[in-house]
Design goal:
homotetramer; 197 residues; mainly alpha; Arc Repressor Mutant, subunit A; elongated; disordered N terminus; DNA-binding
Chain lengths: 197, 197, 197, 197
DNA sequence: AATGAATGAGGATTCATTCAT
DNA sequence: GATGAATGAATCCTCATTCAT
């Protein structure tokens, strides 16, 4: 029919342009939390609600669901890349950062699962891209004799395996299980921590 | 009013009973197919449709979504238990049957992931129960010196790890990855096959 | 995330299977009214609301917007076809029935406007189909010497012209204008009436 | 604080004024294009975007959706009025200009349809006003014996009829149909062209 | 006077779940 | 016992309109 006459009632403040950056940040934070808790399938409205903004704001900043996920996970992946690029980076240290993100965010695990599996709902194309970036960052620092350097696929299969092991309600428990997984693989891992500097 | 002069005696709704069993079986089969194809989030209506029954029938047999999943997976778990109970069962053989189900059904992987993780959508409490049964079946045949017998958790963490590795569009690819995962763990696995009889 | 737990509150009656036909009829009636009033772009929710049913019912009976429109307009077009097939049908009489529907429903006018114009939003493909049926029904009874038999396009251009003239708040006014339009075209029209028998 | 030693005197926001006019013109042009392409229901944001201004500017110049449409169409109607006022204007020539606008702009057709028809979405009251101006411009040059001079309403009904006939994806096709329509009405039309100067 | 961010209503569509027949 | 219709909540997405800067 026609349009939306907007009920004219009271309109809860327009904090103006300054709020834009704040809102984007709030959205990113909210998305990170919501994704961590519910995974990549979480409703976008939940993210907007937790960020304390209207749905339209979310769509202004991110054109679609993929954009939100990419923005969040891009930061996670970026940390791993920076960890790899850092001076004196070794594979154990980078795996420590990787493991940190695995224990933090369900969504991050989802993309590592994604691996080559496009097509299944909830594991969309952008996940492969991000997964690929993680692989490159790791492989660049994988020494020749390393346990995971034998076969082509071993590296990412191992990462997926650890992702599979990371479950549990608390971060501590997830970290415990992640470390157990690496140990079962016979792979040494550095301190589990973010690389935010 | 309309008398039905059947064979000799009036069979008291025995027909209904038999139809009920038939429906239940059809639902289980349908659910297995639908879950394998779409995952645990598949609409229940799709299951009823594929089973060729009304939705009400589904609800008669299974009070809620969890009950459907449980019933399906119960059959999977049952096979593993029977494999374990079979004469001459060894851990490698049982793991082969387990691996078969991992490569067959996305849903089955979900419950093994579930482990202790309640709260995440689609991985509710009942999964723990099933997961526990798998664990008992395996542990009963785990020899003392086995690679996974060292620490309490190692067995199921390893299973979860393999589940994490199992991705890909074709069953062949999933089997390939599963075997690669077991190899990385240094665990020997028997032939990957169902235990249907 | 998960599903819709449905608030459990009170559920406003389920009138059972018998209501199905009644509801479909109510939907068709409602759609006819809403379309007549607002045209083909009317919100589907308005139709469901006027029919007194939930939105889901509408989607059960009609898979998409096109199906609703087709169902409604199919009946209109069908009347014209039946008028053409009736014993002793002549072009003036058929045009009278056509004109009746033009004065009744904005949506019907929309499809005649549609003519060959697919692509524009709100004038979708099915409109062309319906428009084509109207054309065939009319042309079959168009005598050789008829005013609109000269050029290929003249017939449907004339129909579109009359559609263009049919505006106004009351049906009476619309009929008045329709007749004026036919008169300006020098085309004789029979009684303006439905052909419901 | 920061003094601006411009040319000689301080021009009091004359710059702002000029920019405002420029913006208004840009909006009118943009709206014309957008309306021609998407029809009267096009989002206002699209118009602002194409004009290269913020949405606020649009609302400054035009209080509501109707005002935008009016402004655009006002220019079209103005051309017809100027054509009518031009030296040596005759009804055929004026109809040629009218027809030009009918073939150019979907929106323009809408207002001629509108005629007396308020209530339908997108064809609000202001359309009547514009339609009335077109009528006056035409009627002033309608000779007594003209085909459309017989009955009071005939003139605008004929215009609406031609509007109804004007459909099709290309301007050429629309012009072809418009001319066919006038021919069916037995009305002579001058060259189909704008009257821009 | 311009900008463009934010709000939030509206409409589409999908399903879980109940219940008359 | 089975059927399948109905309900309605939830999610997605799009825009009109306001307003701080």
């Amino acid at each position: 029919m026609t349009q939306q006459p907007t009920s004219d009632e009271r309109r809860p403040a327009n904090e103006g342009r300054k709020a834009a950056d704040r809102n984007r940040a709030a959205l990113v934070t909210a998305a990170r939390e919501v994704y961590a808790e519910y995974g990549l399938d979480a409703p976008l409205s939940a993210i907007a609600r937790r960020a304390g903004v209207g749905q339209g704001v979310l769509y202004r900043h991110f054109p679609d669901r993929a954009a939100v996920a990419t923005a969040i996970l891009d930061e996670n992946v970026g940390q791993i890349e920076r960890a790899a690029a850092a001076q004196g980076a070794d594979i154990a240290g980078i795996l420590g950062v990787l493991t940190w993100h695995q224990t933090q965010s369900t969504a991050f695990i989802d993309i590592l699962h994604a691996d080559g599996a496009a097509g299944r709902s909830g594991i969309p194309a952008y996940a492969s891209t991000l997964s690929g970036r993680v692989e490159r960052a790791l492989r660049a620092h994988l020494p020749d004799g390393h346990r995971l350097a034998a076969a082509e696929d071993d590296l990412m299969i191992a990462v997926a395996m650890v992702s599979g092991a990371v479950t549990g309600p608390t971060r501590e428990q997830r970290e415990h299980r992640a470390l157990a997984a690496w140990r079962l693989l016979g792979v040494e891992v550095g301190p589990v921590r973010p690389f935010d500097r």
